Amino acid sequence: MAILAMVAATTVPSQAQVRAGQRYTNWEPIVHLPAPINSEFDDHAAILSKDEKTMYFTSNRTGSVAGSEDIWVSTRKTRNSPWRTPFNLGSSINTPAMERVRSFSADGRILLFQSDRGGGLGLTDIWAVVRGHVNDDSDWSEPVNLGSMINTPSTELAANYLFADAGRLKKLFFSSNKPGGFGGPDIYESTINDLGFQTSVNVFELNSPSIETCFWVRDDGLEIIFSSNRPNITGDIQQHDMWVATRDSVYDVWSAPTRLGPNINVPDWQDVNPALSFDNRTMLMASRRPGGIGPGSFDIYVTTRKPIGGSR
Q: Any idea what the CATH number is for the domain that residue 290 is in?
């Protein structure tokens, strides 16, 4: 319940920040991030702090607990400075199990992650840690499982809070392969009220008989970028590409998803883990495409776009 109380108090975007209808240019060609962010190991599932001077990402590099996926952190002096040597977020969060970064709450105080650690409800669950001060990475709480309204005996993969319409709308979007979906993992949403998470609903217009896994919902709730191997229905994860859907209002259904173009996707290679910056102009993603540091391993990439018709 501590996590839910924190959610209730989370700062929500102002009306100026959630102006409907903001349009953007197409994404620029992605750029590979050099060491020390990427390594010969798997580096993926990265997110940026609001000031874009801290990056949280997932890696099984040397220094991870038992060689598992851990959460790592890198900082830089300014948004244009080089990234410093990453450090492991520590044993209060990382374990010999898998800890995979998923998203931040809008105020940067709640970090959601995926884990198969003991004490969960299924194969992998969504967990949360909370901190009192946005820039203090030594102040994280003990991890808390989001509970049975979100997690199931199946696999929960990704999660993203949405606080929109000046705080009148509070939801948790997440992906799961629980029974009742269209095929592989699907994207769901759960409304949050004073009693906590409500029964989740399949976001049917985004899902297909293929796999829908990791995703990111823009902070105004009008754009979602997600990874899917559609139209493939064999479970071939090498076919994962990035897709996008939009809507005119947070109370509307999503548009039919469209595949992002060749600046983002490469055929027959996994392109996954989208994460937007707080100003929605920068996107981190991960790919196994050729050109990475470790052959066949995940590396982190970045791309940018510009708002059309003025800055937000």
A: 2.120.10.30
